[in-house]
């Protein structure tokens, strides 16, 4: 039976798409990119022809062959990859692999997985937009030029044992965190006293408009307040409005989820992908702040039905429709030309992120709690953004003090019309303080109930949250919204930046209060600068960035990065010729700088004659060289790199104390075994024991402190799997090595698969159940394929 073959990127969409399109259509997935650019030698610089290779992943190669069978059987192929640069490029690669003509092969676009959207897309296909494909290739070439040329310099000049990398957008993202840390270091904050006074029988709080500089000022202020006649004043009532939130773009949904759910941008995009593929929300990679006309119509119907009042609708709701202004202009042009307007409107760019159906307020129970929470945020935002502003009446109440031009203030407001705030219902139509202060006579004297002066810091700068970093990336034009989550994840994966809690600094200080004419003093300990889940740059990140800024500042400054993003946008729009000019410019600029670094020495910071601070495989260490012997010591986590580079640290100030304790403990045996002292030590891969010439791993003890492990426990573990005699190793537990990450091993309950990649902290232990191969002697390729198919690892 002949069929139309629809090719998407993700397999999760296929069944739903087939159900909407009906008989005669088959939907398969490419599983993302099928070809890759492996190196600079695959780029022909004369015209920037790129020689792509089929992905090296065996599983992907097999999948391509399965796709080829479907392509050959199909009556027609319809490319339905995502509507972004990567999706357009994947569609083009599919044409290249399967000998399809990109100028005639159908390419369809849809931004939500609904029956109407798919049927409309099928009715009005287009072909591949080569401008967008060239923009993606230019982006790919720029990234590989910077990565392949600059990253090796980090290995040469900082460390070759760590996976250090530089990136066209990754490095400016790291620079934002670095610059913020410099601002924090330069702004220790200013000590001050904040003053709050409580007036009336309702004890309504009023805030002093001026901060007091020190203890004596605070005490003097309170003393002067004892007999002072505080007089009340009130501004005229005025009406204010609060506009609804804007429709959600990619960056805005990442910020919203980070702030409301405390999840990373990467996790947010995974959840959005899941919701999109299940047909609950529209496409999640978008800069648009518009909705489809159909969705606007459904909002109007929902609001009028739910709230019984069209006043709750945004007064300019029709202006939120995709292409509303453009369509009117186009219609006017056609009318003037005397042409009849036929057919559907042209396919527009993405919509904002929204629910596919506003009537679907909650997700089914089988969805995860996080998916439900994120969907609720998206649903609420979409509805709120289409509603009218909330209006309030407000006034400012003031009370005089003995200081000229300084007074207490209290702002009160009362909601008139809830507008968009009615969606969550988090408002009150009653404000007792508002009503009470409206009745107080202007000019009347109000005695204080209590006045407090509390010690505080002003001007303390904070580390960035992931949400804040997303906001800054967008503002400065670093990368695209679809790449923000990857950039933030990458600088953390490289250990340049860590998301962590920051302990505050405890300070003993004095607070003062005035009550019933008596000034009270209280000594308290307060903590300042305490932060939760913030991005903190690490010594490795600082060393890497300082090296890059010293030599590649022009390549990684914010303006140049934004310029390149703007140029990529111009290529997408067909406004640059030739499209590869930006690639050649970047390549020449990078080569010019790299040539000047041939004599640069390795980056190390000397502490004294025998000790050097450096970056090793697992991060910063102190390299100790005495009498030709080299050892390494751990570095404290809270060192200040600027202080270190100025040479102001002593060895004792920078070395982790546990190293000294560890050395002492490891020099003491826990007993004797086979005539040798037996030691228990903690190494890179966990706890192990050592006696004579023998060593044995002790995984049973996990992260248990070595001082809590007894001789009897260790001997029992040694003898459990055979005892080495006079330095001879027992039979190896490894049955067969499959590759660097995988081996077949003997276990207590039979053979098993041991899997551990370089990125994994702990290994995985996988069963051989169901393996019909002779895994000890069969062709290694067959064994690798079976493990890949069974467990998805290689």
Automatic annotation (TrEMBL):
Residues 324-335 have a biased composition (Basic and acidic residues). InterPro entries: Topo_IA, Topo_IA_2, Topo_IA_AS, Topo_IA_cen, Topo_IA_cen_sub1, Topo_IA_cen_sub2, Topo_IA_cen_sub3, Topo_IA_core_domain. GO terms for molecular function: DNA binding; DNA topoisomerase type I (single strand cut, ATP-independent) activity. Signal peptide: none annotated. The keyword Isomerase applies. Residues 324-349 are annotated as: Disordered. Keywords: DNA-binding, Isomerase, Topoisomerase. Residues 129-593 form the Topo IA-type catalytic domain. Its EC number is 5.6.2.1. It holds the Pfam family Topoisom_bac. It catalyses: ATP-independent breakage of single-stranded DNA, followed by passage and rejoining. One of its GO terms (biological process) is DNA topological change. Residues 3-113 form the Toprim domain. The keyword Electron transport does not apply. PANTHER family: DNA TOPOISOMERASE, DNA TOPOISOMERASE, TYPE IA, CORE. Belongs to the type IA topoisomerase family. This is DNA topoisomerase.
């Amino acid at each position: 039976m002949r069929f139309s073959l629809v090719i998407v990127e993700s397999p999760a969409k296929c069944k739903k798409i087939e159900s909407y399109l009906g008989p005669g259509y088959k939907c398969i997935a490419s599983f993302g990119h099928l070809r890759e650019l492996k190196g600079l030698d695959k780029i022909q610089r004369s015209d920037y022809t790129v020689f792509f290779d089929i992905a090296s992943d065996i599983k992907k190669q097999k999948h391509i062959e399965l796709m080829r069978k479907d392509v050959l059987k199909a009556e027609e192929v319809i490319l339905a990859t995502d509507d972004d640069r990567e999706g357009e490029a994947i569609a083009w690669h599919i044409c290249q692999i399967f000998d399809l003509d990109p100028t005639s092969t159908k390419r369809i676009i849809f931004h939500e997985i609904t029956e109407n959207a798919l049927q409309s897309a099928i009715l009005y296909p287009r072909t591949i937009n080569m401008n967008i494909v060239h923009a993606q290739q230019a982006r790919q070439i720029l990234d590989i030029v910077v990565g392949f040329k600059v990253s090796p310099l980090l290995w040469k000049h900082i460390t070759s044992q760590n996976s250090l990398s530089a990136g066209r957008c990754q490095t400016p993202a790291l620079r934002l965190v670095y610059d913020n840390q410099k601002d924090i270091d330069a702004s220790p904050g200013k000590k001050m006293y904040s003053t709050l006074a409580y007036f009336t029988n309702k004890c309504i709080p009023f805030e002093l408009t001026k901060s007091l500089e020190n203890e004596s000022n605070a005490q003097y202020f309170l003393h002067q307040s004892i007999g002072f006649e505080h007089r009340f004043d009130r501004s005229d009532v005025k009406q204010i409005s609060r506009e609804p939130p804007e429709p959600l773009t990619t960056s805005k949904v990442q910020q919203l989820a980070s702030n409301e759910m405390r999840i990373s941008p990467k996790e947010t995009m995974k959840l959005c992908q899941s919701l999109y593929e299940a047909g609950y929300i529209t496409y999640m990679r978008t800069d648009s702040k518009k909705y489809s006309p159909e969705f606007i119509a459904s909002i109007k119907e929902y609001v009028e039905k739910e709230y019984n009042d069209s006043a709750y609708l945004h007064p300019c709701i029709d202006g939120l429709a995709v292409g509303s202004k453009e369509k009117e202009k186009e219609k006017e042009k056609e009318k003037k030309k005397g042409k009849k307007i036929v057919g559907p409107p042209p396919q527009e760019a993405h919509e904002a992120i929204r629910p596919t159906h506003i009537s679907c307020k909650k997700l089914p129970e089988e969805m995860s709690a996080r998916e439900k929470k994120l969907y609720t945020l998206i649903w609420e935002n979409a509805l709120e953004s289409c509603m009218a502003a909330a209006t309030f009446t407000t006034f400012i109440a003031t009370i005089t003090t003995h200081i000229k031009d300084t007074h207490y203030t209290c702002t009160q407001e009362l909601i008139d019309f809830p507008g968009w705030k009615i969606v969550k219902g988090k408002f009150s139509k009653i404000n007792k303080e508002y009503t009470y202060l409206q009745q107080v006579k202007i000019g009347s004297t109000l005695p204080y109930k209590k006045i407090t002066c509390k010690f505080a810091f002003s001007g303390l700068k904070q580390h960035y949250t992931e949400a804040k970093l997303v906001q800054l990336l967008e503002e400065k034009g670093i990368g695209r919204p679809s790449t923000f989550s990857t950039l933030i994840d990458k600088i953390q994966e490289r250990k340049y930046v860590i998301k962590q809690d920051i302990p505050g600094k405890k300070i003993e200080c004095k607070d003062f209060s005035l009550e019933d004419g008596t000034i009270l003093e209280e000594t308290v300990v307060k903590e300042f600068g305490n932060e939760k889940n913030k991005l903190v740059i690490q010594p490795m990140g600082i060393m890497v960035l300082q090296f890059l800024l010293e030599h590649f500042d022009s390549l990684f400054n914010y303006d140049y990065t934004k310029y390149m993003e703007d140029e990529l946008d111009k290529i997408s729009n067909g406004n640059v010729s030739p499209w590869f000019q930006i690639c050649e410019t970047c390549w020449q600029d990078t080569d010019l700088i790299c040539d000047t670094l041939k004599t640069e020495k390795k980056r190390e910071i000397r502490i004294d004659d025998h000790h050097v601070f450096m970056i090793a495989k697992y991060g910063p260490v102190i390299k100790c060289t005495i009498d030709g012997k080299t050892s390494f010591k751990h570095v404290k986590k809270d060192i200040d790199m600027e202080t270190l580079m100025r040479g102001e640290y002593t060895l004792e100030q920078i070395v982790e104390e546990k190293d000294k304790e560890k050395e002492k403990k490891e020099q003491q045996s826990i007993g004797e075994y086979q005539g040798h002292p037996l030691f228990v030590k903690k190494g890179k891969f966990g706890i192990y024991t050592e006696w004579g010439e023998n060593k044995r791993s002790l995984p049973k003890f996990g992260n248990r402190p070595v001082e809590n492990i007894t001789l009897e426990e260790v001997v029992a573990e040694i003898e459990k799997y055979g005892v080495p005699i006079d330095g001879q190793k027992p039979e190896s537990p490894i049955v067969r090595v499959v590759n660097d990450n995988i081996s077949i091993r003997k276990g207590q309950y039979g053979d098993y698969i041991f899997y551990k990649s370089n990125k994994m902290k702990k290994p995985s232990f996988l069963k051989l159940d169901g393996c019909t191969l002779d895994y000890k002697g069969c062709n290694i390729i067959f064994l690798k394929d079976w493990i890949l198919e069974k467990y998805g690892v290689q």
